[in-house]
Amino acid sequence: MTLSPESRPPAAAVVIISGGLDSTTLVYHLRAQGSDVRMLSFDYGQRHGRELNCARQVAQDLQLCHHVVDLRAVGALLGGSALTDPGMAVPDGHYTDESMRATVVPNRNALMLDIAVAVAVTAGSDAVAFGAHGGDHMIYPDCRPEFVDAFTASALLANGGFLAAGFRVLAPFLHLTKADIVRLGSRYGVPFERTWSCYRGGARHCGRCGTCTERREAFQLAQVPDPTAYEAA
Amino acid sequence: MTLSPESRPPAAAVVIISGGLDSTTLVYHLRAQGSDVRMLSFDYGQRHGRELNCARQVAQDLQLCHHVVDLRAVGALLGGSALTDPGMAVPDGHYTDESMRATVVPNRNALMLDIAVAVAVTAGSDAVAFGAHGGDHMIYPDCRPEFVDAFTASALLANGGFLAAGFRVLAPFLHLTKADIVRLGSRYGVPFERTWSCYRGGARHCGRCGTCTERREAFQLAQVPDPTAYEAA
Questions:
Q1: Residue to test with chain B: of A81, A108, A151, most B Cβ within 10 A
Q2: Which terminus of chain B has a lower count of CB atoms within 10 Å, N or C?
Q3: pLDDT tens per residue across span B122-140
Q4: How far is A48 from chain B (nearest CA, A)?
């Protein structure tokens, strides 16, 4: 398990948290490193809106500042993803399948990071952070290291003079697998049973969609007990 | 007057339009070049919300598709700019003054452009365009050529495989002065009297704030009659 190299933890970070396993662990991780964490979540009309309640619970547990930004107008404009369009089915099976391209919300990470950068300017934070990990690379181009580098270069140019000194865009899990993240979260005591992954957004995790499949495997590989209640055995 | 060099006009462009003089002329310009134009505007709680009605009028005049995206939740989160915060005064005088930094909305262009990129993915457009011009460079870092280049590189990486072939981020006025834009708009018959610039958002243009000062001078320099009704003589 190799965390992305960082010379020093940020003094203050704006962390994008969905309420899922990865981003929740990221909040615990940065907090453990001593960073002052401000949480940012996005309501883009995702059918798994339940994850936002998980994020709210993290904020309450850890007594952190948390903003949920209403981007439903943007989600409505885009449509065309199974994550936001009730008329489209969420596909079953592994992330690596071509069919999982249906879960791409165009340009989502850039958009969320842009708002996080703006909040960092306002709050004087010296970092924004998001929970992209190694398993995301294949299907989501905006989860790859080269995107993080290019986005950072653009953000620095866009906000020259307004950002805190040494400002960085952090993706500390970029070279971790999801199993690595489960191991790390387990060390921090992350309440995994209160995180939400399933794209279907039912009462319980479906256990069959791409993100459920990945979640189950991660606990198995990490040899950490999986506290999730799945619909499918 | 040097328009940014372009080998060919885009087949279809998502154009960010505020309802001001520059972006309205940009819509007329791309349309004159034969591009299929889709207009995108943003309500971020700007006190000069009146400009959005000007953008709506352009859409109606030219029979173009127009989306106004509600970003008030983002505007409320940021505050701290005289453009959105009713508690802050809009400063008088020239843009080059240090005091005009109060009109910076953090990371605004990157955010608007990233939403435009997402729309371009959805609509299959091969360009997004915005109306930054030479006079914006001094105070707004996200209006500079190096930002446009860095942003483009990031957008291409974030959406690899999802964007139309040959996708570009266009800022055709980047090397024009506002007077050049007035001359260009005059050739296209842009109804300048129906564009809105003033940051104060009163019933008429105040004639004194940075953008009014710039607007008045542009018409004078371009030797084009200024149809604007200003409060201050």
A1: A151
A2: C
A3: 999 999 999 999 877 667 7
A4: 20
